[in-house]
Amino acid sequence: MKKTPALFSLICAGIAAFAVSSCASTKNSLGESNSKELKIVLEGNATTGYSWENTLTNEEIVSVKEKTTYLGKDGITGAPSKFEYSVKALKDGTTDLTFVYKRPFEADEALDTIVYKIEVKNGKILALGTIEGNWRINSFYKNDEAQAICDVALNLKKEKDGFFVAGEAGVNIFNGNIKLSGNIGKDEGGFALTKMMGPADAMSFEDNYIQLFNGEFYVIPAVKNGTEILTIANLKNGLSAEYRLVNEPFVERQ
User: Fold this and answer.
1) What is the mean pLDDT of the chain?
2) Model confidence over 72-128: pLDDT tens digits?
3) For the segment 32-84, what is each residue's pLDDT rounded down to a tens digit?
4) What is the per-residue DSSP string for the chain?
5) In 30-68, which positions are buried (b, 16+ CB within 10 angstroms) versus exposed (e)?
6) Which of 13, 23, 101, 232 could form a disulfide with 37 if both were Cys (CB 3.0 to 4.6 A apart)?
7) CA 119 to CA 116: how far, in whole Å?
8) CA nearest to 19, candidates 9, 29, 28
């Protein structure tokens, strides 16, 4: 069985915003970025012949440079690799940056396709995308290593200067407000969390998961294989979670 690669994270260089989107429209204003460079980090299995290929709809807007790092030991086939892309602003405008994951020497359909809509404004990269809505977790990473997950729901509702967040953290439920500047989110005064105990594995996941929202973190919308996804990544503690947008209503557990 072929392993489908996971989205690690997208990182803007400098002080500013995190990367990305590929939505046709934007539900909420994300403000302006302060960054001239964007870094996109993806996972793959280079030892099996698979790699990420990228294309731009407008090559005048940004430039893209790649660096691949093997994460396994002793050249074991199938061990993960990290594909890092440095995206630099060239001129104002918009462009779609598409990544496909496949073997270059095979005509097979790509295993994964991720598209980012990038806007450069006043020489700075601005990430566009949909954040408001109901999401369910796909994957959870700690220091680039996949972790066992619980079925977690997350609701983000637009407010004046940010979002109201309500979610499930494994056993407990939590809610609070975040301020959003560009794609950088910040906990505004702490999240309320119920104090219930549950199975050890669920509590272990929860202890890590709630730290996503500790201090500053990055809120990253995108489209993967036709499905809207959202990545929340906290660079300080090496945690990131990927969610998929769902149509089902969010009902907070009691």
Assistant:
1) 80
2) 776 666 677 888 888 899 999 999 999 999 998 888 789 999 988 888 989 988 767
3) 666 788 778 888 888 888 899 999 999 999 999 998 887 777 666 667 788 88
4) -PPPP-EEEEEESSSSPPP----SS-SS-------SEEEEEEEE-GGGT-EEEEEES-TTTEEEEEEEEE-SSTT-TT--EEEEEEEEE-SSEEEEEEEEEE-TT--SPPSEEEEEEEEEETTEEEE-----EEEEEEEEEETTEE------EEEEEEETTEEEEEEE-SSSEEEEEEEEETTEEEESS--EE------HHHHHHHHHHGGGGSSEEEEEEEEETTEEEEEEEETTTTEEEEEEEESSPP----
5) beebbbbbbbbbbbbbbeeebbbebebeeeebbebeeee
6) 13
7) 10
8) 9
